[in-house]
Structure formats: structure tokens, C-alpha cells
Amino acid sequence: MQKFKEGFLWGGALAANQSEGAYLKNGKGQSIIDILPVGVERKRGLKEPNYVMEQTFDYYPSHQSIDFYHHYKEDIHLLAELGIKCLRTSISWPRIFPNGDETQPNEAGLAFYDAVFDECLKYNIQLLVTINHFDTPLNLAQKYGGWQNKQLILFYRRYCKVLFERYHKKVRYWITFNEINMILRNPFLAGGIVKSGNKVDKETIFQAAHHQLLASAEATKLAKELDSNIQIGCMLAAGSVYPYTCNPKDVQAALERSREQYFFIDVQVNGCYPYFAHRYFEEHGIQLTISKEETALLAEHTVDFVAFSYYTSRLETVDSELRKNLIEGNAMASIRNPYLKDAGWGRQIDPLGFRITINEIYQRYQRPLFVVENGLGVEDTFDEGAIHDPYRIAYFRSHIEQMAEAVKDGVDLIGYTTWGCIDLISAGTGEMKKRYGFVYVDLDNEGHGSRKRYKKDSFAWYQKVIATNAAVL
């Protein structure tokens, strides 16, 4: 049986706020992530946005990052040498609308993405662009309270209209929001939500998410009216949730936890809130403001494909003792799975879980799927210009093998873009030492280094995988 269809989009993924740098360059405004420092203070800031808004820190990782802004030609040339067919990247919202609420875009920001996209197309690299990847303009958080304010739908729609009109002939695949379910775990980073005292209640979070869902539907409507060939996708942070035991209570707990990640994707694919939402809202005292017009908008403008990130599976139990020692990876806390190896930073390695997750999502939605993040964050050793990373090769080999099994199962898979194909700063910690790429960037956690690029051993390995459509792993 064929593993991957002809034209399968092998690629890599980056995010503007984690790679571009060029802080405030050519009219760019501040994004939420621009006020987050590195390390422990960053983690506190994600939970207490008012704390980081009132402080000044010595180092902000996003201000310089790996400086993709000035290295994009070199970096895209490297990706072309790698052989990628698709680059997933994002557009920095405050680079286009510095404060988010302007009526006219920043032409210098648009010109930068013209240059980046043209450089990719020069090498026949297709583009998958995320419209909002954790970089809501800071002004929209400070002045409007973030996505809890319905006015952000208007600002987002204006932003999308500019992007689609400017780039629709260059970009076919779009994602409206990065990991939309992450707003449940990190309302400041994912939703720009700011509240007095930093306490954010569930009703505020779900109302903000509802506004994002409406904005996503508005974007889909705009895109299709402009060009029917545009493909609009949603995205979730995915990972199947296993029950810790066969105790029915553990099974029910795993089911409820799993529903959390699919809550908003159900709306974007099916056009309405899932059947279990009504009980959830009632039991948690959540009363959303939803008009008949909004209900119709969601129903009429659903997405073309489902994109997702996968790093690991999760484990759930009702056992209070076991729940005292949770590990946290990608903001998703979990019981430690004794059958899996640790990858560091609160993650465990579960290749078979990748196949399980892919099948679970496809069975639920019956829409084409796009794996847009998958990878291993590790501290690499720089040895006189060489970076030997057999652990990364082993990780990708095992996951691609299981992805191939999912394709054999009958899943319609568009493509696979590995996370951080070039080393970039971590969204959660701001660190550089948590490296994902096939290309090493000479930069440390404090921002010191030449920012020179070096190919890792995994570069040549992935190059062969792409060239053979994964016939050679």
C-alpha cells in the first residue's frame, strides 16, 4: 500500500514571534510575546500578565530571536536545499497593524512578507500561513482586554482582508488561529486576555474563544468570496488522552479531558457547538452571549481542513495521589506514563500515540488533515561546527513510520511540517537551548552568539526522507 501520495507536502514550520526578531523594525508594533522575558519570569508573566506589563527586564528573547527578518534569504535557501515542499510560517499581526486597531496597514510590514513569500516561491516552496500565532498586538490586550472584547473581531477581519487581498495568489493554505484550544490553558498568550488581579474566569475565556470562532468564520467567508481556491484551516494542540486504568471513572475522566481539545474545532468543522457543550456551560455557570446571526455565521462558514500539533499523548486519572505529580508539556499537564520515555521539558515520547491521534481526529471530522507541528526539543551539543543528533533522527523516524501507518489506515493527509525546522526561541520559556531544528543557530538563552547557521546531521537525513517520499527512513 502506498504510504504518502504524490505531492505530499513535506516541510518545516516557524512562527514570526519566535524567529523574526527585528523588534519595532519598519513600523512594527509590540505583540503580547514582546513583553515576555526568558525563563522563570516568563512563566510567571504568562500567568500574571499585569506583572510583566509593569516590569522592565534585561532581556526579551523575541526582540532579536534568530533574526529571520534579516536572514530570511539565507534561511529559505537552506530550506530549499533541505528539499522542503511547504513552509508553515506566520504573519506578525503588529507588523501589519502596529496597534491592531488602525484602519490602514503598515506598508513596510506587507512588503517584508511579499519578499519572504516570493523567495519561497522562487524555490517552488508552497506556503501555509498562520494568521494569528500567539502575537495579538499588545495594544489590543491593554486597551481592549484582548479577545474577551467583541471589537477584536472587527480588527481581525480588517487584518484578514488585507492579507487575503495582498497574498491570495501566493498563499493557498491558511490557518486562522494557532492552537485555538490553548486559550483554555493560557488565556493571555492565546487570547490576550487581561483582567484586574490576573484572575480569569471560565465564562470570560469561553466568551473570548467564541469571539475567535466568529473571527475565524469571518475570515473563511472573506477568503471564499475573494478566491474559491483558498483553503482555510483550523488548528488544535492535539494528543490523545488515555485513561490511566480501566477503572470506568478514569475512562470518563479521559473522555472529558479529550473533549476539551476538540471543543472549538467541533465548531469550526461542524458549524455549531458540540452536544456536550450545553451541559458543560450549565454546570460551570457559563452564559455566553450568542446571537442568531452569529449562530448562522458559524454554520455557514466552516473550514476546509484540520491542522494540528502533536508532541505527545496525555494520561488522565481520578486518583488524587497520582495527580499530585503532574508533568507539564506544551502547557498540557498529564500523569506520567510509565510505558513512555522522557524527552525533557515535561514531555514523553509516544510515536504510536501519533497514529492514534491522527486516526482519532480523522474519524471525528472526516476532513483532510495537516500535521503542522511535530518535533523534539533537545539541548544539542555544538562540536566545532558539527551537531550530531541521532536522537532527533530516531524521534522523527519513529513518528513518520506511525504517520505512514495512519495513511495506510485511510487517513487523508495533506502534509507534514516539522516544528522549528530552524532553531528558534521557545514560546513557553523563551529559551534557545530547547532546540528543534535541522539547522543549528549559534545563540544562547541570554541572546549571545553569532546567529550563524549550521546543518545538523538530521538535515541530511530529512533531506533523504523528502527526496524519497519517506521510502528511505
UniProtKB/TrEMBL annotation:
PROSITE patterns: GLYCOSYL_HYDROL_F1_1 (PS00572), GLYCOSYL_HYDROL_F1_2 (PS00653)
NCBIfam families to which the protein is assigned, alphabetical: PRK09593.1, PRK09852.1
Official protein name in the record: 6-phospho-beta-glucosidase
Residue numbers annotated as active site: 373
GO molecular function, one term: beta-glucosidase activity
Species name: Enterococcus caccae ATCC BAA-1240
Gene Ontology biological process terms in this record: carbohydrate catabolic process
GO cellular component: cytosol
Signal peptide: none
Key words, A-Z: Glycosidase, Hydrolase
Family in the record: Belongs to the glycosyl hydrolase 1 family.
Cross-referenced Pfam families: Glyco_hydro_1 (PF00232)
